Write the structure tokens for this entry.
Amino acid sequence: MKRSINAVYPGSFDPITNGHIYIAERAAALFDEVVVSVLLNPQKKAAFSVEERKAMAREALSHLPNVKVDSFSGLLVDFLRQEQSRIIIRGLRALSDFEYEFQLALMNRQLAPEIETLFIVTEARYSYLSSHAVKEIYQFGGAVHEMVPPGVFRRLRERFPLPRNILP
Ligand code: PNS
């Protein structure tokens, strides 16, 4: 009997961007199930609550039937064990991501040697994209509607209403 393989794609997703969606789509094409898991970290100040981030991710990934959205707190490897998964998916944008990601992957391997981190390289058009940049650009009146799904754009407008004279 064929064994089903599931992977976990963790992150802050504050909020989910088109770059994250691209990685989730590619992971969904490789694995039977992908759990996109939003980190609940009370120490890190987030723009959106975990429930909001989950709702935005669910909406943005609803076209992927084998992707589910969840959240976790504490150690990522504990969440993987709970999900009976041995694969962490992370997206790589540029060389600048590498050092942090390498450290994270090695730390997780130290904690749980049976778990593997797999990197999916983004597409060139998303290589500059981050949740942080989206929030910053939006708050200074820049156009971000091509960087995030419509549900995220709507929530950004609700959360950070801009003066009328500023785009978008
Ligand atoms: O989207 P992000 O903020 O780059 O995601 C980082 C994340 C959530 C993958 C990472 O911070 C994480 O796994 N945190 C959980 C705590 C943990 O397991 N730490 C041990 C590895 S350093």
In short: The longest strand covers residues 33-39.
